[in-house]
Every structure is written in C-alpha cells, then in structure tokens.
C-alpha cells in the first residue's frame, strides 16, 4: 500500500495535520496506537483564538465557556478579571481528540487505530513499519507526542519540559479558571472547570516533589475546601524558547505538536500550537513538496516561533519574580492577556508593552534588581 503521507499519532496535532492534508487532496494514512476514544492527561483548556482552526461542529465538544477568572498568589490572594466575550473553551480530551480524528476521516484520511508505528527506512520512498503491516509513503509525519518514536529515530532528545500532575474532582467553578503563581519555582498551579467537575494540577520545570506540592497547594487553597487529592496522574509538557528547541524533522520526515516541542513555555499550551503547526505543515507540503522541510521551517519561524520566544521571555521574568508578576496581574496586564487568548494580540506585544511596567514595579522591592533583570534579559 502506498500513501502520499503517513501521520503517526491521533492527538490534536496528528489528527489536524491529517485533516488539512486530506482536504488538500493528499492520500493520507493516520496511525494511532490506542483504540479511540483514548484517555489523555490534560486540563483541556483551549484559548479562544483556536476557533478558526477547528472543523465545523467543534462547539458541541465544549464543556465550559470561560470568560475570565482568578490570578492567585499561593491560593491566598487573588485578582479577578472577566471579559465580555469568551476567552477560552474547556473540552474533554478523549472526546475532542476523537472528534478531530473523525473529522480527518470525513475529509478522506484512512485511519488505523490500535496500530503502533515501529520504525521507518528509506530516503525518497519511505517504508513505514507498523504493528499492522508495512506501508510505503512519500512523507512521514511524527505527531506522536512527548515520547515520539519518530523523533527518536531522527536522533532528537527532549531537553526542556514541564513536569505536571493533575487530578479531577467534584466542584463548580462557574466557568472561571484559577491560575496560581508562587507554588513552584518555575511554573504554576491551576484549577479549571471540567464540565461539572474541576481539573486541579500544577506544572513545573523545577525539581520539586510535584505530588507533595500539589497536596499542600490543595490543602491551603482558599477556593478549595475539603477536596481529596486522589487519582493523580503525571505527564511531561515539552516547550520551545529558542529556535534550536524546535524539532521539525529531516528530509521527508517531519514532526509537529509535542513531538516537535511546539508548546509555549509560559503556560504549557500545546493544543493550539499543535493544530496551527499541522495547518502550516499541510500548506508547506502541498505548495513545496520538493523542499518541504525548508518551507515548513520558514512558516513555523514566522507564525509560531515568535510567540513561543516571547512567551519564554515572559516566563523567565514572571517565574523569577513571581510576587511582582502577581502584583502586575491585577492591572491592565491581565486585560492584555485576555485579549491574547482571544487572538487580538500576541506574546510579543504583551512582553514589549508590559516590560517597562514590570521593571518599574520590580525596582522598589528587590535590591540590585536592575542587575538581575539585565542578566535575565541577556541570558537566552
Ligand atoms: C497535565 C497536563 C495538562 C495540560 N493542559 C493543557 C491545556 O489546558 N491546554 C493546552 O493547550 N495544552 C495542555 N497540555 C499540553 C497538551 O496536552 C499537549 O501539548 C497536546 O496534547 C499535544 O498534542 P499532540 O497531538 O502533539 O500530542 P498528543 O496529544 O500527546 O498525541 C500523541 C498521540 O500519538 C499516539 N502515539 C504515540 N506513540 C505512538 C506510536 N508509536 N504509534 C502510533 N501512535 C502513537 C498517542 O497515543 C497519542 O494519541 C497539558 C498537558 C498536560 C500533561
């Protein structure tokens, strides 16, 4: 059997790449190792700017429409902000990912679920070995998540990632989200609505014992009472701050989503970037099949990398000076952030316009802070 493209992984990045490619008339095979729908650990929060990238009917996947919420410091003090319009949508990943896969199939992609990608060989025509059979393809696309086998075969290793833990519990957040800083050294804690339940978790790039920190976060949080920490699961979230972190592939083998580290380093938002990456990859492949990698890299560096880069600069400051970040969150920074989630502005603008205020609000509180800030801004 021969395909134009074989896509490995039926998460948001893989399912969307398969859909965009099939819509452009490519003969596509989507391989997913699990039977669908499958569980995926994730808070499932989509920034509202994702809407134009989703297939028709996505609204029926939405459990909660978020218009704002709380920025907290250690679950003790809070700023509260609400927008007049939706800023985010919460979905259930098992159902949402299955919906995206079904949309890919409706667009013409073949699907092999319960089928594992094993390895590939070849240069122009690629022979892809799977647990079902071997297929031939012109292009292989790895969208197989954090532990990407496709990426490993290309020699990539993950260097930058959050370790995160999450559990679901009873509770009504009234369609608002809570994000707390001051919990871990570099990262944050969250409480998101999940239908009529809540997702509680934290993500950190530090070395803390995440389970212990999560327990004390929950115990001491003013908005949580008598919540039992049970059923906690952990997973990794890779991210990009520098161009070298983007693992986009080699020759006719391309990566997208978590396998390519296409996640922002401030919040760990990966669904939006994975789907946008799939769109850019499909466009590059359709328009420049002979130099697809260069074309893909160019599009990613123009449309996704600047966001990840400036999110990284914000993360560096915000997590180094978490009290100051919290203080600033009470003002128009939060309004700008809500606009970003809606797609009305980006991290570059948030960084450039927020930096002077951040420095001003930092200076009275930290000795020699200008030296530290200078160091942080130079270090990349
Ligand atoms: C606790 C937690 C909370 C998060 N919360 C959010 C959030 O609120 N919003 C947000 O945007 N992001 C969030 N993220 C990040 C988000 O989950 C990822 O960025 C996103 O899932 C990436 O999508 P993907 O398609 O690249 O990979 P995945 O969703 O990981 O999908 C990869 C797929 O590949 C399949 N696969 C793997 N290996 C093989 C193989 N060898 N053969 C065939 N198939 C294979 C897997 O079964 C899987 O279905 C969170 C992550 C975690 C861990």
Structural account:
The protein has 380 residues and is of the alpha/beta class. The protein has three domains: 2-44 and 92-158 and 240-303, 3-Layer(bba) Sandwich (FAD/NAD(P)-binding domain); 161-238, 2-Layer Sandwich (D-Amino Acid Oxidase, Chain A, domain 2); 320-378, no CATH class. The chain has helices spanning 12-23, 93-106, 149-153, 210-220, 271-287, 292-303, 305-320, 322-329, 332-341, 347-362, 369-378; strands at 2-8, 28-32, 45-47, 62-66, 68-73, 77-82, 88-91, 110-113, 117-122, 126-130, 134-142, 161-170, 177-181, 187-194, 197-204, 233-238, 249-250, 253-255. Strands 1, 2, 8, 9, 10, 11, 17 and 18 form an eight-stranded mixed β-sheet that branches. It has a seven-stranded mixed β-sheet with strand order 6-5-13-14-15-12-16, with helices on both faces. The chain has a three-stranded antiparallel β-sheet with strand order 3-7-4. A hairpin with a 2-residue loop joins strand 17 (249-250) and strand 18. Helix 1 (12-23) packs parallel to helix 2 and helix 1 packs parallel to helix 5 (271-287). The termini are far apart. Flavin-adenine dinucleotide binds next to helix 1, strand 2, strand 12, strand 16 and helix 5.
């Amino acid at each position: 059997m021969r395909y134009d493209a074989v896509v490995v992984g039926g998460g948001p990045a893989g399912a969307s790449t398969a859909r965009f490619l099939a819509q452009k008339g490519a003969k596509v095979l989507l391989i997913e190792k699990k039977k669908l729908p499958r569980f995926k650990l994730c808070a499932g929060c989509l920034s509202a700017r994702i809407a134009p990238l989703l297939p028709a009917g996505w609204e029926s996947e939405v459990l909660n429409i978020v218009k704002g919420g709380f920025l907290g410091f250690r679950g003790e003090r809070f700023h509260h902000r609400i927008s007049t319009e939706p800023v985010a949508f919460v979905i259930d990943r098992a159902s949402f990912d299955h919906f995206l896969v079904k949309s890919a199939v409706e667009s013409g992609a073949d699907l092999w679920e319960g089928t594992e990608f094993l390895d590939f060989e070849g240069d122009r025509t690629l022979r892809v070995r799977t647990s079902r059979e071997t297929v031939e393809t012109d292009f292989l696309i790895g969208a197989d998540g954090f532990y990407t086998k496709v990426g490993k075969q290309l020699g990539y290793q993950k260097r930058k990632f959050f370790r995160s833990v999450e559990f679901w519990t009873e509770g009504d957040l009234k369609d608002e989200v809570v994000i707390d800083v001051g919990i871990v050294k570099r990262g944050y804690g969250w409480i998101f609505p999940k239908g009529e339940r809540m997702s509680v978790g934290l993500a950190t790039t530090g070395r803390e014992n995440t389970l212990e920190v999560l327990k004390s976060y929950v115990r001491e949080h003013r908005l949580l009472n008598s919540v039992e920490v049970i059923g906690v699961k952990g997973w990794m979230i890779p991210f990009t701050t520098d161009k070298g972190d983007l693992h986009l592939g080699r020759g006719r083998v391309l990566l997208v989503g978590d396998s390519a580290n296409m996640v922002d380093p401030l919040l760990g938002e990966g669904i939006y970037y994975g789907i946008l990456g799939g769109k850019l990859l499909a466009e590059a492949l359709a328009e420049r099949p002979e130099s697809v990698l260069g074309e893909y890299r160019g599009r990613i560096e123009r449309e996704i990398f600047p966001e990840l880069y400036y999110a990284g600069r914000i993360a560096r400051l915000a997590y180094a000076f978490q009290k100051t970040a919290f203080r600033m969150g009470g003002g128009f920074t939060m309004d700008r952030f809500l606009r970003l989630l809606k797609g009305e502005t980006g991290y570059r603008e948030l960084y450039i316009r927020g930096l002077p205020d951040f420095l001003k609000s930092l200076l009275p509180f930290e000795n020699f802070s200008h030296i530290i800030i200078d160091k942080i801004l130079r270090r990349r």
